[in-house]
Each structure stands twice: as C-alpha cells, then as structure tokens.
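Duplicate of #3305? Posting structure anyway:
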C-alpha cells in the first residue's frame, strides 16, 4: 500500500510539473536545455518572475541568414551549404564541420521566426535484449505546440514560409552525372508528391518514364516522358494561340470602361465650373445676397472637390497594359527550348523554373501490372505560370 501511494504521488507530481511546463511554453518562455544556433539562453527578472528566453548572437545570426539566402536565392542544397560554410570558416558550436542534417533542421526550425516549438520530438525509451534504447521520433502535428515566443526573430515569417514551400523542390543529381530530367522540381503528382525520371527497361528497348515517388500508396499510373512532353507542348501552343487575343480583349474592355467614367466625370466638372461662374456673376449683379451666395457657393465647391478626387482615383486605378508581345515571345522561347534535343536538360530546367511555378499531373486510370502496355494513357496537366 505504501508503494502504491508513493507511485500515485509520483505520477501526480509529474502531472503538476507537466502542467507547469506547458503553461511556461504558452507564455513564450524558452525552457529547453540548450539554445539553438544563433541564440544564447538568458534569464530575466520581470515583475517578481524569472523569464527564460533567448538572446541573439550577431555572428551566428549572420551565418543563419546566409544559409537561408543560399537555399532560397542560390538554389544550394544542404550539403552544398555545409561545404560553403566550412570553406568560409564558419564553425558550428560542437562539431568540427557542418552536416547536411544540421542545416536541414535549422532551416526548418520556426524558432528563428520568434516562435516556440514544443513537443516536436518525444524521447522514447525502449528495452531490447536487455539493453536500453533511446530514440526521439517526430510527434504527430496535432500534438506539437507552436506559440509566440518572447525572443526576437532572426528571419521573417515570409522567408520561413518560402523556405518550407521550396522544401523538396531542389533537384537531386547523382555525383559525376548530369541532370536528365528537365522537369525536376516542377512536376508533381496529383497526390502532392514529386515525380521522378526513370528508365523502364523492356526486352526491346529502354523507355524514359515519369513515376510518382509515392506510387506504392497513391497508385497513380506512370506516363511516358515523350508523351508528357508532347502534352506539355500542346498546352503551350494552345496558350500562345489564345493568349494575345484574350489579354488584348480584357485590356481594351477595361480601358474603355475607365475612359468612359473619366470623360463623364470631366464633363461634370466642367459644368460645375460654369455653374460656379454663373453664381459669381449673379452675386456681382445683386441677384444673390452675400449670405445666399456663400451658402450656394459652398455646396458647389464641395461637389467640385469631390469630382476632382473621383477623377484622380479613376486615373490611378486604370490597370497597366499587359505586354502581349513580350509574353508571347516568352512562351515561344519555352517551346523552342523544349523542341530542341541538343539543349541540355539542366538549361531547360532553369528556363522552365524561371516562368513556371509547378506542373500537376492528374491521371485517374488504373495502375496495375499488365495494364497500360497497349491501352491509351489519358491524363491532364495543370500548369501554373509565374507570369
């Protein structure tokens, strides 16, 4: 009974401590054992309370900003960033050299935006063959706590979100080889996973295909690279055929609409100026008394000011003319690049990423062994352009 009571008291004490930890985290305190790279732990006194928070280390914060810049703007991978920092003699805290895993964890850590993340990984202790094994697996998203911290951010929220959106879009090329897939980092399956460029080796020949990296779960049917390329080229050709006409029509209608409004307001302003002049003449001729003239003329001037403001707003809100010729030339440049087999896949990939955000591959046909060898593959491409 004493052991039971002692165990109950221990569990109760643990629960009280857990509640205190969660309360402190929700208040924005940083209570982890060690500070992340870029910060140092500090304790401050505030209203008879001790606040545990973080303080920025300028040298390490500058290194962090370099990491984000290399990843977002220079398209560096984690290993390339680690090599660059080692070359610049920027040292990590404990290890001798930077590792790709450390760079990845730092770029994905929301603490640098001024947030506190808690319960992201739980320490799990298991026993196997009489030996204790400790692991820290990621917790489900619903169990993770993310709250606003008391410390100052090193990077902006927009920069962090851009980093998270780009995650997984950097192209991966094996060492001592060149890029073969011009759609690397651009082509995504309807399930959300990226698609890889692979060779389907048959008895007669090897054929390049595009396969979803999550096909074992989503079962989306693969597609021939040549077939995908033809479909994309057809989409681009249709876009070129309809692009200039559509944009010019929209521009003309919008401009004509605003021009009619401006002309009507200018005519109204001209009439108000004439009315103001007639009132002045009537006052000079003695038709209006001074009090009547002031009251009537005040209303006229208020209408004049209001009309002038409306004309300025209408002129400022006229949409800019979309340069159809320039955009058409861009689409034609993409088409020429796709057609030309002599241009390396890496150059094609750079050009496509310049104007295309992503391409989504949709296919509802069954993907089973033996199906698709002789049947027609029906699929749809959704292209999202930067322009």
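Output from current build:
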């Amino acid at each position: 009974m004493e052991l039971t009571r002692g165990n109950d008291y221990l569990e109760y004490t643990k629960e009280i401590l857990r509640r205190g930890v969660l309360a402190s985290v929700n208040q924005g305190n940083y209570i982890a054992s060690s500070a992340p790279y870029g910060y140092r732990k500090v304790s401050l006194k505030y209203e008879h309370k001790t606040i545990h928070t973080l303080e920025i280390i300028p040298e390490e914060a500058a290194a962090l900003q370099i990491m984000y810049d290399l990843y977002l703007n220079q398209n560096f991978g984690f290993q390339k960033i680690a090599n660059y920092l080692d070359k610049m003699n920027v040292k990590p805290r404990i290890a001798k050299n930077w590792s790709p895993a450390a760079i990845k964890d730092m770029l994905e850590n929301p603490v640098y935006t001024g947030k506190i993340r808690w319960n992201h990984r739980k320490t799990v202790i298991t026993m196997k063959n009489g030996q204790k094994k400790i692991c820290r697996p990621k917790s489900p998203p619903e169990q993770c706590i993310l709250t606003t911290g008391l410390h100052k951010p090193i990077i902006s929220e927009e920069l962090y979100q851009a980093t998270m959106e780009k995650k997984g879009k950097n192209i991966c090329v094996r060492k001592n080889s060149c890029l073969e897939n011009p759609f690397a980092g651009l082509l995504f399956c309807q399930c959300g996973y990226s698609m890889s460029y692979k060779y389907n080796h048959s008895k007669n020949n090897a054929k390049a295909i595009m396969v979803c990296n999550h096909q074992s779960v989503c079962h989306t049917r693969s597609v021939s690279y040549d077939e995908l390329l033809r479909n994309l080229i057809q989409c681009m050709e249709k876009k070129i055929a309809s692009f200039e006409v559509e944009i010019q029509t929209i521009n003309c209608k919008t401009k004509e609409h605003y021009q009619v409004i401006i002309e009507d307001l200018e005519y109204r302003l001209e009439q108000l100026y004439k009315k103001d002049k007639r009132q002045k003449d009537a006052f000079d001729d003695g038709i209006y008394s001074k009090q009547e003239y002031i009251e009537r003329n005040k209303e006229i001037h208020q209408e004049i000011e209001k009309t002038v403001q409306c004309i300025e707003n209408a002129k400022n809100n006229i949409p800019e003319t979309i340069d159809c010729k320039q955009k058409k030339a861009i689409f034609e440049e993409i088409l020429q690049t796709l057609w030309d087999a002599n241009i390396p896949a890496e150059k094609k990939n750079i050009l496509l990423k310049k104007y295309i955000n992503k391409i989504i591959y949709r296919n509802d046909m069954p993907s089973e062994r033996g199906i698709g060898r002789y049947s027609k593959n029906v699929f749809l491409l959704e292209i999202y352009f930067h322009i």
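Confirmed duplicate; merging threads. The first strand starts at residue 39 and ends at 46. The CA atoms of residues 302 and 308 lie 10 Å apart.
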